[in-house]
Design a protein that fits this description.
The structure holds three protein chains of three kinds. Chain B is of the alpha/beta class. Chain B has ten helices and eleven strands. Chain B folds into two domains: 116 residues, D-Maltodextrin-Binding Protein, domain 2, CATH 3.40.190; 139 residues, Periplasmic binding protein-like II (D-Maltodextrin-Binding Protein, domain 2, 3-Layer(aba) Sandwich), CATH 3.40.190.10. Chain C has two domains: 47 residues; 241 residues, Orthogonal Bundle (MetI-like fold). Classes of the chains: A mainly alpha, B alpha/beta, C mainly alpha.
Chain lengths: 297, 312, 312
């Protein structure tokens, strides 16, 4: 009997160890990602790459024979413009939808909308890209008399549709967290629905809603296939939303395949990866801190 | 816990086990040498990827015991994979550089062997409603090259009515594709770069398809990518000289100025299955596929096999 | 909401005829209420409408080609006709193997977070890591997969490397929904079990896991849907343009082979293969979208069904 119970306690310990290890694995993976991406890019990052030029020059000539230049400013501008446009569309609509689902829906309707939004979130990004390339391209040319339909607008609309689900679901959670007594108090004071929303719900849920928007931004910045196919992939500063741009993510996706392993170009693409990792890390950290702000209140 | 939940639980475990068993048996066949089906790994040029795919597809009928894996990515990918020794043969739409050959030697101890398997002519595409018919290399250089001053169709003497802004929309390829390299070299030599702001698409077909839909556009891509809804321009070496259309005869005669050979590289002389595959590619059956895909087959007769000593 | 009576501006009048009559203010309130409802409904519908529009448009365009044979046939004539069997099978392999890795790790990680971890800074860091893992761009996962699995671990470009990359990428999906499911099991259940002398692990195995199996399954199913749709992480780690396999052979791929995948196939035939009949990419998109949405719908049905059977 003693042996048996000892065996059991040993098994228990082993299992507990495995569980603990799996629990820590998330940290391991995040560090692993940073480590390996950094490892591939570090050689050139510390010797050879002019970081000032990297961040401030718009000239991206990674394969020039005479004068290679690695400047990502135009790519940053591309990412920023597409993300900004997509947020300009997705934030009002996403928050509107979150308000509708949380405040105006009966339980049945709410469930239905949530399912549809979940399905919207499930559409693979390559399918979105395909839609941008084949459908939206023609629509934009016809509608705006634009010379080309693969533009900031195209990518922005698609990214908006892609990031709306996350804004809706997190935003709805945030509104749900506002106590009902707030709403009741406001209505008892004679406030209209608009007033309840503007004066009570939005201020009370502001942290959660901000977190929702931040996560939406994170999603939009990191999206790859859709923007690769829909934005026209052109290194330039966009002067309006009908210009083509190229984003950081799309640059990696398009060029990594042909950059010989270990070459400067290859390493620069990994450095762009570090840059992306850092941007999304900060965005996620910010949204986490904002959410923690609610919890502490 | 209820019976049903136990069942569910069991079901999950069962599914996982089946999956394990499934990939276990898959894993057995993965050793390329031991399995009954040999795998030839073939990576490289985007220009040639469809050709390589067609070969691979047909070869599965000719030699069912060999499975050819084709990946595109570009000439650089193929060469890089060859240098790392991860592929058997690499497709290239440009010649390997001396430095690359050195790296391959240093890395693998074998010398890459070059094989010309066909020719490709880069066609210059415009929208079908574009009235232009021919263009010279100089004009192309002025459109694409850094410092070039042509940005409007009217500067080329064209009144292009369906293009509303008169702007020349330059469609190009991502800067490390073999097609881009070759086109840049043909236009500008090795001294200058292309202007930024072109739409650098990811695939040869993408270029043609976008030109098809974009009245103001001009683009370049292999002549095999031609469709019925784009216009292909005749190209002259110099302004005022005769312009030639991209076709097999003009490419072989050298009249068409932007035609290039297509290469396959192997690490050392190919042996075994890979050699059989390469021999088949050079045979009449393989070359028929070259022309069926819109490329220029080798001249009938002697398949040219030349050992690469192109480190000059 | 019934606010009409209490907010009447005339509380003095107690005549029952007029007391409940709508005043101008009440009417205005009702109007704004309706207006608000309509505005937000419109916004919601504007987000949902595209989904329906897109799905129906894709199906409409794909209709001529859709059939069970489209999935089960090999592509022919340079992927310009025939089916998508190798890509479909490849996606099954990638998803299956990634699931094998991420499901146990993900579930156990969630068990740790919910059952073992204390409320302290370290747990917060783990949670933060999970959130960040979910937020890392897919292309950065691709870089990681290339650096860690393909090159460092020496797996080469293979199904294994691509699956592992997908597994790490989709881990947060499983962790999040498993954690939620575990959290929904009342603490009283655990306490009852501890009181009869069961150890922590026994409690988890006998009580907590069986009672949360529905949520865990939902997470696993969502992982499948996410993994099936991803392109960027597999592009550089194991997906190829083309690989000839035998029709109907479900063990055609080995762990160290490269494979085709549905998402990659959609990308290549819509950007790289010329003269593809229009229905073909649409058909591929519909099969991909259909697979993903069906799997998702399965998760939803399961969740609704099991929730309705919950006994506490």
């Amino acid at each position: 009997m003693i042996n048996r119970s000892r065996l059991e306690s040993v098994t228990e310990r082993i299992i507990e160890g495995i569980i603990r290890f799996c629990g820590f694995s998330a940290i391991l993976f995040v560090f692993g990602i940073f480590f390996f991406v950094f490892r591939e890019g570090s050689g050139f990052l510390f010797s050879g790459l002019d970081i000032g030029q990297f961040l401030t020059s718009p000239e991206w000539f990674p394969t020039s024979v005479s004068n290679k230049r690695y400047g990502v400013l135009a790519l940053l501008a591309g990412t920023a413009s597409v993300t900004a446009l997509s947020m300009a569309i997705a934030v009002p609509f996403g928050l509107g939808a979150a308000i509708f689902v949380s405040e105006f829906c009966g339980p049945k309707l709410k469930e239905t909308f949530k399912i549809v939004i979940e399905l919207l979130a499930a559409i693979p990004s390559v399918v979105w890209g395909f839609i941008g390339l084949t459908v939206m391209n023609g629509v934009i040319i016809d509608l705006f008399d634009a010379p080309i339909g693969l533009t900031v607008l195209n990518g922005g609309i698609i990214l908006a549709l892609m990031s709306v689900p996350i804004i809706v679901s997190i935003g709805e959670d945030a509104l749900k967290a506002v106590p009902d007594s707030y709403r009741e108090a406001a209505e008892a004071l004679g406030a209209t629905r608009w007033q309840v929303i503007y004066r009570v719900l939005l201020p009370a849920g502001k942290n959660g809603l901000l977190a929702a928007v931040l996560l939406g931004i994170g999603r939009a910045v990191g999206e790859t296939m859709a923007v690769l196919m829909a934005t026209g992939h052109s290194v330039q500063f966009p002067s309006n939303i009908l210009d083509s741009v190229r984003t950081l993510t799309a640059t990696i996706a398009a060029e990594l395949g042909e950059a010989p392993v270990g070459s400067d170009h290859y390493q620069v693409l990994f450095i762009i990866g570090i840059l992306l990792f850092t941007i999304t890390f900060i965005v996620n950290l910010a949204s986490d801190l904002v959410v923690k702000g609610i919890r502490n209140k | 816990m209820s019976k049903r939940q136990q069942l569910l639980y069991l079901f999950v475990i069962f599914t996982l086990m089946i999956a394990v068993a499934g990939c276990g048996s898959g894993g057995d066949s993965s050793e390329t040498e031991t399995s009954d089906k040999a795998v030839i790994q073939n990576a490289g040029s985007d220009t040639m990827v469809n050709l390589a795919q067609a070969w691979a597809e047909e070869y599965a009928n000719v030699q069912p015991t060999v499975s050819v894996e084709v990946s595109g990515g570009g000439s650089g990918t193929g060469i890089a994979a060859l240098i790392n020794g991860t592929v058997d043969i690499a497709n290239c739409s440009r010649q390997m550089k001396a430095s690359e050959i050195e790296r391959a030697k240093a890395n693998t101890g074998k010398t890459p062997v070059e094989l010309i398997v066909g020719y490709d002519a880069l066609a210059v595409y415009v929208h079908e409603e574009n009235p232009m018919n021919e263009i010279s290399i100089e004009q192309l250089a002025n459109i694409y090259g850094e410092g070039g001053n042509i940005t409007k169709w009217s500067q080329l003497g064209i009144s292009h009515s369906t293009c509303s802004g008169d702007e020349v929309i330059r469609i190009s390829r991502q800067s490390n594709s073999g097609t881009y390299h070759y086109f840049r070299e043909a236009l500008l030599g090795n001294t200058a770069d292309f202007k930024l702001g072109s739409r650098d698409l990811h695939g040869s077909k993408d270029v043609v398809e976008l030109v098809e839909k974009t009245p103001c556009a001009i683009g370049y891509s292999g002549m095999g990518y031609r469709t019925d809804h784009v216009k292909v321009l005749d190209v002259a070496k110099k302004a005022g000289e005769q312009a030639f259309s991209p076709n097999v005869d003009n490419a072989l005669s050298g009249d068409y100025p932007i035609a290039r050979p297509l290469y396959i590289y192997s690490l050392g002389e190919a042996t075994g299955k890979a050699k059989e595959y390469l021999d088949w590619i050079l045979s009449a059956a393989g070359q028929k596929i070259v022309s069926a895909n819109g490329y220029v087959p080798l001249e009938t007769g002697a398949p040219m096999t030349e050992s690469s000593d192109s480190s000059n | 909401m019934s606010t009409s009576a209490t907010t009447s501006p005339n509380p003095v009048t107690l005549d029952p005829q007029t007391r409940f009559r709508e005043t101008a203010l009440v009417r205005r309130k009702k109007f704004t209420e309706k207006l608000a409802r309509l505005t937000f409904l419109t916004m919601t519908l504007l987000m949902i409408f595209p989904l329906l529009l897109i799905v129906s448009y894709l199906i409409y365009k794909a209709a001529p080609i859709l059939s069970i044979n489209f999935i089960l046939d090999n592509p022919v004539r340079g992927m310009r006709a025939g089916g998508i069997w190798p890509a479909f099978l490849g996606t099954l392999y990638l998803v299956g193997i990634s699931l094998l890795v991420s499901a146990p790790i993900g579930v156990l990680a969630a068990v740790y977070l919910n059952e073992y971890a204390r409320e302290n800074w370290f747990t917060r860091i783990i949670n933060l890591a999970v959130v960040n893992l979910a937020g890392v761009p897919s292309i950065v996962h691709a870089l990681f997969g290339l650096g860690a699995f393909v090159l460092f671990a020496g797996m080469g470009r293979s199904i294994l490397a691509a699956s592992l990359t997908l597994a790490i990428m989709t881990l947060p999906v499983i962790i999040a929904s498993t954690k939620e499911a575990l959290g929904a099991v009342p603490t009283a259940f655990r306490e009852a079990c501890w009181n009869v002398g069961a150890t922590r692990w026994q409690t988890i195995r006998r009580i907590v896991l069986p009672n949360s199996i529905s949520g865990i399954l939902t997470g696993i199913i969502l992982q499948v849907s996410r993994a099936a749709g991803e392109t960027a992480p597999i592009m550089f780690t194991g997906a190829v343009f083309f690989k000839a396999i035998e029709k109907g052979d479900i063990f055609a791929y080995g762990l160290f082979d490269q494979s085709m995948a549905l998402s990659m196939h959609l990308f290549t035939i819509s950007t790289q293969v010329p003269n593809v009949p229009e229905a073909l990419p649409y058909g591929t998109a519909v099969v991909l979208l259909g697979t993903v949405l069906l799997v998702n719908a399965l998760a939803i049905v399961l969740r609704v069904y099991l929730r309705s059977r919950k006994k506490w």
